[in-house]
Amino acid sequence: MHDYRPKIEQRILQQLVRALLMLGLALLQTSLAPTIWRFRADWVLIVVIGWTLLRGLLSGVRLAIYGGLALDLLGAM
C-alpha cells in the first residue's frame, strides 16, 4: 500500500559505502591476498557474482562498476 523508498541522502550513502567496501576488497585482492595465501583468487569477482545472485542484476552491475574502477585504480600501484 505504501511505497516506501529511501531518501536520496540514504541512497547516496548506501552507494558510497558499497564503493568504499569494493575499494577495500580490491586493495585486499591486489596487495595483501597474494602474500598471505599461495593461490590467487579474484575476490572482487566472487563478491560481485554472489551479490548479483542475491540482489539482482541492476545492483550487481553497479557493484561490478565500483569493483572494476577500484581494481583499475589499485592495479597500477
* Helix/strand class: mainly alpha
Radius of gyration: 15 Å
* Overall body shape: elongated
Question: What percentage of amino acids are in beta strands?
Answer: under 5%
| Fraction in helix | over 70%
Molecular structure report:
- With 77 residues, this protein is mainly α.
- It has 3 helices and no strands.
- It has helices at 8-36, 43-55, 57-75.
- Helix 2 packs antiparallel against helix 3 (57-75).
- The longest helix has 29 residues, at 8-36.
- The protein is elongated and about 50 Å long.
Topology, element by element:
Elements: H1 8-36, H2 43-55, H3 57-75
Give structural attributes.
single chain, 77 residues, mainly alpha, 79% helix, elongated
Briefly, what is this?
This protein is an all-alpha fold and 77 residues long.
